[in-house]
Design brief:
Elements: H1 3-17, E1 19-21, H2 22-29, H3 33-45, E2 49-52, E3 55-58, H4 71-76, H5 79-90, E4 98-101, H6 105-114, E5 121-124, H7 127-134, E6 140-143, E7 147-149, E8 154-156, H8 158-164, E9 169-175, E10 178-179, E11 183-186, H9 189-200, E12 202-208, E13 220-224, E14 230-233, H10 239-247, E15 251-254
Parallel strand pairs: 4-5, 4-9, 5-6, 9-12, 12-14, 14-15
Antiparallel strand pairs: 1-3, 2-3, 7-8, 10-11, 11-13
Helix pairs in contact: 2-3, 5-6, 6-7
Length: about 260
Amino acid sequence: MALSSRHEDIIALLAASGEQTVEDLADRLGVSRETVRRDLARLEANGHLRRYHGGARALANGLEPETEWPFAQRMAQNAAGKKRIARAARDLFAADDSLFIDTGSTTIAFAEALAARPSLMAITNSPRIAATLAANHSHKVFLLGGAYGADAGESLGPLALEQIGKFRARHAVLTIGAIDTHAVMDFDLQEAEVAKAMIERADRVTVLADHSKFERGAVFELAPLARIHRLVTDLPPSEAMVRALAEAGVELIVADRD
């Protein structure tokens, strides 16, 4: 395949899916991973994409977007990686644990994996997560109310924040929009407020984030890395991120590949 044609195919695949791993691109294009890495380096240098450790993501009009994809699209992106994260995170919790769980595509996968665990108490702003966990009658589930956010199907705003303040949980399990070497962040103010309130009312914080969240920026800071106890992801982050997490005392858990 000609180099220019292969580059066009890579850009088209990223435009369709939002992101691709090096492994997936190599399989789709029928070339070696090293060839894909060289292609990605050239395309990034020319402003066509942004690389991360193990893959690349599309840019919006040549610029890194400062917003997230719509929720339905995020549910479809990297679904296999999110399921691996969910299975790895499920094993971190035991009977009688209490958990705040915020709304996100990865926490929905987590709830599906967690449902078979016995005797948990969960507090969530997601009706879908609440229904998933409540199907196991040994769980005690509290659904927060508030203004309804239609995109992700979640409770937001002052009423939700007030209700979070009535609970104290052992754990907060959260999704994020972005993480860099200093902090975890989100793109939406109201979702950030919910996550921050859960962090304040939890003893320990576990973040579930697939590889696309690494070394990105977002407008609203949720917490410095030092406030996070565990980070569960699907692919190893860069050496700089690994070093920053270690210095902040964050336990890094990379889910096993299928």
